[in-house]
Amino acid sequence: MSKKQKVSEKEVEKIASLSRLSLSQEELARHTEDMNNILDHMDLLNEVDTDNVDELVNVHDMTSPLRDDTFEDSLDKDSVIENSPESSKDYIEVPLVLKKESQ
Fold it and tell me: 53-78: buried (b, 16+ CB within 10 Å) or exposed (e) per residue?
């Protein structure tokens, strides 16, 4: 891990300007140091050997606790229409839910 400065104060100042932030000299120095520390940590992570590590797509077990979908007989259309209060041909009539706007 190199301790060489990767981000200069001038670059942090430009980032702050693009972000419409005004930083004092103290804040500028602190943010420059923070950004360089973050990049040093990233370098450290890049050094980790991950050749024999499987990719992690999801941290949760992907087995489904639900039952398998199965087809079951349902009511036939004619008996449903027969037992509905109002019907017209092959459709069940229901009362209006929304009122029509008066014109």
Answer: eeeeeeeeeeeeeeeeeeeeeeeeee
